[in-house]
Specification:
It comes from Teichococcus globiformis. By secondary structure, this protein is α/β, with parallel strands linked by helices. It folds into 2 domains: 106 residues, Urease, subunit C, domain 1; 312 residues, TIM Barrel (Alpha-Beta Barrel), CATH 3.20.20.140. 28% of the residues lie in helices and 21% in strands. The chain has 13 helices and 17 strands. The strands form 2 sheets. Strands 1, 2, 3, 4, 5, 14, 15, 16 and 17 form a 9-stranded mixed sheet that branches. Strands 6-7-8-9-10-11-12-13 form an 8-stranded parallel sheet, with helices on both faces. Helix 3 packs parallel to helix 4 and helix 7 packs parallel to helix 8. It starts with a strand and ends in a 33-residue tail after the last strand. The structure holds dihydropyrimidine-2,4(1H,3H)-dione and zinc ion (2 copies).
């Protein structure tokens, strides 16, 4: 018997800090040693000519989510996690729903049981849509005790959105408990007003989804979310930043010392209004919120990635197929308004469920557009794909790391493999990818999850149920800075 269960030998390792040559010795699912010429393992994998990064952590994806209207997003934990692993993501954080008018316990019963089918490790953000005293004073503290330490709020979508008063209540509770808060920032009333006018003008195409929520709508809500978080002194992450307007709000607040972080997604630096204008209603495939922007916005998003304002890239993966959801006047919470029909029988833009599938393509697109095109270096890729999310969500030291003691989640990248993204080769359960035909350079050859080969050359070997729930303990980053206006800490009462 060797010292190790598995040795990954001869690769170029990329961590969030450096790039170096070493073997990786793995024991009991954990990285046990790094070094040259490690002794033999019971199993050996050659990484010669490959780049080895920590496994991806997708800290924002919607999997098998059950809506208040009874609809279930089409991606199951089994299919979604197979797709994640095939694309180099070994763990993810998805959402526990709260239905308005329901306790947390009574919302989407059985959801946590379903998650046990995952092949990748997983955790949850708890969505709060109805912050009653019972929920905030009893259920959320119990949830945090169970290791679910992040809350998600929406400032738009009916029936998900919170008023400012409700949002403040969530922020104050999170601060008392040392939980983290993530926010979808768009102005609900502004969007509703624009939708009404667009429909009145007979403008119903998928492109008008973007017209209904231009950057100013996102900027306003981002500014407001940050201001309220600053008032409470509660750390937040602004989800899916799509434009410079919103990113600039985050950068300005960070410069003042506010604990705010910004996330973006591959759709915001690769897709644009052009994709919303596909023939035969295929523009619906690219409907997501915040909406896609003009192509000229991409360079600005890259600049904000490069300057660290946007320091996490997630998929915001959504399980809405073109045939069954996007074209079918989707009955989903992630749409805005009744299904006004068009003469061609397709739904008006406001009734198309919002969201794109991207859990499998997130890292290959980021690697290709970022590393292969020279926009970011390998340590930055690691920060964006796993290490920064691990810090923000209380998984540092366990995920997103190559250091001994961390989980042996690894991706062996072939940096020279050139291919095009094709639906027929993906593992997700959705019937399209918005990146169909995109040429990419760099692809995961092998994904290792906690020391086991989970995917080899596109073949998923990890079984449903082999993923583990990631319970998260207290951590400093989720704590307030101690700065409150006038020294009066209203959240402490
Ligand atoms: N945006 C999407 O595009 N889909 C799901 C939720 C969201 O905020
Ligand atoms: Zn969102
Ligand atoms: Zn989302």
């Amino acid at each position: 018997m060797g010292d190790f269960d598995l040795v990954v030998r001869g690769g170029t390792l990329a961590s969030a800090a450096e790039v170096f040559e070493a073997d990786i010795g793995i024991k009991d699912g954990v990285i046990a040693a790094l070094g040259r010429n490690l002794s033999r393992g019971a199993e050996e994998v050659s990484a010669k000519g490959l780049i080895v990064t920590p496994g991806g952590l997708d800290s924002h994806c919607h999997i098998e989510e059950i809506g208040q209207d009874g609809t279930v997003q089409e991606e199951s934990f089994s299919s979604g996690s197979a797709a994640a692993l095939a694309g180099g993501t070994t763990s993810f954080i998805c959402f526990l729903p709260q239905w308005k008018g329901y306790s947390l316990a009574d919302s989407a019963p059985g959801y946590e049981e379903q998650a046990k089918r995952s092949r990748a490790d997983y955790s949850f953000h708890q969505i709060i849509t109805d912050p009653t005293a019972e929920v905030m004073e009893k259920e959320v503290p119990a949830l945090v005790q169970r290791g679910i330490r992040s809350l998600k709020v929406f400032l738009t979508y009916d029936p998900l959105r919170l008023t400012d008063g409700e949002f403040l209540r969530v922020l104050a509770t999170a601060r008392r408990l040392g939980a983290f808060v993530t926010v979808h920032c768009e102005n609900f009333d502004a969007i509703g007003w624009r939708i009404e006018a667009l429909l009145k003008a007979g403008l119903t195409d998928p492109l008008q989804h973007a017209w209904s929520r231009p950057p100013v709508v996102e900027r306003e809500a981002t500014h407001r979310a940050i201001a309220l978080a600053e008032l409470v002194d509660q750390p937040i992450q602004v989800f899916h930043v799509s434009c410079e307007d919103a990113a600039a709000e985050i950068a300005a607040a960070r410069a003042r010392g506010v604990k705010v972080w910004g996330e973006t997604c591959p759709q915001y630096f690769t897709l644009s209004h052009d994709d919303l204008q596909g023939a035969d209603f295929t523009g619906a495939k690219a409907v997501c919120s915040p909406a896609l922007r003009e192509r000229s916005e991409h360079a600005r998003i890259w600049r904000r990635i490069q300057d660290g304002t946007l320091d996490v890239v997630t998929s915001d993966h959504c399980g809405f197929s073109f045939a069954t959801a996007k074209k079918a006047a989707g009955s989903s919470a992630y749409g805005t308004g009744a299904a006004a029909q068009r003469p061609d029988g397709m739904p008006a833009f406001n009734a198309i469920p919002n969201g794109v599938p991207g859990i499998e393509t997130r890292l290959p697109v980021l690697f290709s557009e970022g590393v292969s095109k020279g926009r970011i270096d390998l340590p930055t890729f690691v920060k964006l794909s796993s290490a920064n999310a691990a810090k923000l969500f209380g998984l540092a030291g366990r995920k997103g790391t190559l250091a001994p003691g961390g989980d042996a989640d690894l991706v062996l990248w072939d940096p020279d493999r050139e291919t095009t993204i094709a639906q027929e080769r993906l593992h997700h359960a959705i019937d399209y990818t918005p990146w169909e035909g995109l040429p990419v350079k760099g692809w995961p050859s092998i994904t290792i999850r906690r020391g086991e080969i989970a995917v080899q050359e596109g073949e998923v070997l990890a079984a449903p149920g082999s993923g583990r729930f990631l319970s998260r303990g207290p951590y400093a980053l989720a704590r307030g800075s101690g700065r409150v206006p006038d020294g009066f800490d209203a959240a402490a009462l």
